[in-house]
Amino acid sequence: MADQGKLRLGVNIDHVATVRNARGGAVPDPLRAAALAEEAGADGITAHLREDRRHISDADIEGLMAHLTVPLNFEMAATEEMQAIALRHQPHAVCIVPERREERTTEGGLEVAREENRLAHFIAPLREAGCRVSIFVAADERQVTAAHRIGAQVIELHTGAYCDAHADGRFEARDAELAKLREMAACAHALGLEVHAGHGLTYDTVAPVAALPEVRELNIGHFLVGEAIFRGLAPAILEMRRIMDDARG
Q1: In the chain, N or C terminus with fewer CB closer than 10 Å?
Q2: 42 near 7, Cβ under 8 Å?
């Protein structure tokens, strides 16, 4: 049985930067959001530096590395440019994600099984630099086992299909996706991988994922930034923390 200890919450601040960039200028400041998230009990901060810099900027990463007192989870594509940036900053963790310029947000998990050799060589210098390497994957055994073979220490299970099915009222499909998440969390844990999960989670969908005993961390961003418009960022995070803890308890 997996450890039933405290489930960590990583708060993704990408979409604070999205709002800032919509008008230009310096507000709202993602670093201020990160500080508020820390104060509200976030266990880490997640930021995705995209190749097109559509939200988080290089300066944001510089500021986060300089001022955060909780770990930074640096999401990035598997490109030479991003590898160089990660090696320069050496964040606590790097999460390798798929990235297409035409997508609005990350649409699925990384294709690891077809690119094992390239990805194994790509992540080796990151591990040597002391970064914990996470791979963002669908709840698919081929991808989970491939992530283990290439030397990742962590997988983050993509919860988007589960959340989308819930939002659309396709409850049989939702339950089937949750069953996949449950099975792959257990599979990854058995392989010695630390298990994280995230993408699209809301107050309505987080509890069943938080209850999975193998999951050690959830990364949540867009929903919390949206909810912050109505109730403030700290209260939004505190409510998510409460639901997670209740589900875990």
Answers
A1: N
A2: no
User: Where do the domains of the chain lie?
Assistant: 8-248
Q: Which of 45, 42, 48, 46 has its CA nearest to residue 9?
A: 42
Q: CATH number for the 8-248 domain, one of 3.10.310.40, 3.40.220.10, 3.20.20.70, 3.50.50.60? A: 3.20.20.70
Our answer to whether residue 128 is catalytic in this structure is: no
Q: How far is CA 194 from the centre of its chain?
A: 13
- Stated as kind and residue range, the H or E segment containing 8 is strand 8-12
Catalytic residue among 48, 89, 158, 166: 48
* Catalytic site residue from 15, 55, 75, 227: 75
pLDDT digit string (tens) for 99-153? 865 445 445 789 999 999 999 999 999 999 999 999 999 999 999 999 999 999 9
Residue 75 appears among annotated catalytic residues? yes
Residue 67 appears among annotated catalytic residues: no
Cα 18 to Cα 222: distance, rounded to the nearest angstrom: 10
What angle (nearest 5°) sits at the alpha carbon of residue 44, between those of residues 49 and 140? 70
82-121: b (≥16 Cβ within 10 Å) or e = bbebbeebebbbbbbbbbeeeeeebebbbebbeeeeebee
**pTM of the model as a whole:** 0.94
Q: pLDDT of 31-47, one tens digit each?
A: 999 999 999 999 999 99
